[in-house]
Specification:
Low-confidence stretches: none
Helix content: 10-25%
Strand content: 25-35%
Order of helices and strands: EHEHEE
Number of helices: 2
Strand order of the largest sheet: 2-1-4-3
Distance between the termini: 9 Å
Mean pLDDT: 91
Structural class: alpha+beta
Amino acid sequence: MKKVKITVMKTVCHEDLIEEFENPLEQPCEMTVGEVFIADGWQKPDGLCDSAWDSMSPFVMTLAYGGEDIYSGWMKNKKSAMISCNDGFRPVTFLLETLEEEAD
């Protein structure tokens, strides 16, 4: 099984939706562009939020087990995927890339 690099590519904050619909949060998502996580199998990397992991874990596992070309030609690099978390208020876009090193 391969390790998978997870890089934060973009963060968005929909202030209008937050103001109208969201209850105040003590600690909203605080991902920063360029932040990197390394996935080692089904183990969620430290510091990665549960919601993001729930959105991307099937894609991470596909790549970790050698899967390629997710959605037939979608990505220029066949050993990668672009995934966004399911937070409608603060969506974060992640680039997933298979690393050649094996997971522990």
